[in-house]
Amino acid sequence: MALLTTGTTTGLVIDCGNLETTVLPVRRALSQRLESLLLNHGRFIPPSHLQLSLAPQNPVPQSVLTPSLLENLKATVLFCSPLMMDKREVQSDPIAGYKNFSSATDVYYPVVLEDGTKATLLIPGWIRERAAEVLFEGDEEDEPSIIHCILNAILRVQSDLRRPLMSSLLLNGGTSLIPGFQSRLKQELLRVMRDPTKFEKKRYASLLRLQNSVRFIDSPEDNKGAGRIFMNNVRGWIGGSLMGSLKLSGEELAREKYKGVVTDWSINHWTVTPPSGTSSSNNSEMTASSPT
């Protein structure tokens, strides 16, 4: 559905959301990595009339790092570093490596506590720059990174489709909107193809010659497709709307004949299908109806 928003129907969509990608689950979510780094290395400045540089600093309380706050931090504070690090340095001492290879500035981020008072989080610059490294790390076999997920997906298609897919990559999902994500993703793909490890050279031997075909549909540099008309986090929804309006999803089902329920995602509640022959409609469930 997301491909429809670019004016093309062929491509490999990488839906990088909060917890997983559509290619293969990424177990170590970005939110979990960010939370862990803030708990261990961030600082919490309680409500105070002192200047932030003079106010007392405490460890970050777990209760402050709500899912909503973590999502806001991902959207407004984090970015992907354009500099790739030596994998050996990361494995030996990742935190020291992140600190040494970071030039980002620290950020004071205001937060509102449960009692309505205002506090502040001090987020080190290296966390802002390197928290997203979790997306490009991982075990090559048991816990693949996004790069390996993409290559594994392309390996599963017919050989004559691999080059068109590699040259028609499309990012989808809110996490892919982190500044620098797309360019870093391309760098990592090219790194695997130009300087693969022994495992990568053996597993992806048939894909290494495609290094000159790595392109993104909506990239101005690659100049393919309709360009970035819609943002990554809404492409799936707009594509679904296009499918409905263009009658691409098959025969419509009249409301009177539909006996199931669909989820009302607006209130973050998953519904349970009622017993056969019954239907319900309340705050957490709504009966589906077809357009007229």
Automatic annotation (TrEMBL):
UniProt cross-references to SUPFAM superfamilies, sorted A to Z: Actin-like ATPase domain
Region (Disordered): 272-292
InterPro entries assigned to the protein according to its UniProt record, in alphabetical order: Actin (IPR004000), ATPase_NBD (IPR043129)
Source organism superkingdom: Eukaryota
A Pfam family reported for this protein in Swiss-Prot or TrEMBL: Actin
Signal sequence segment: none
Bias-annotated ranges (Low complexity): 273-292
UniProt-recorded name of the protein: Actin-related protein 10
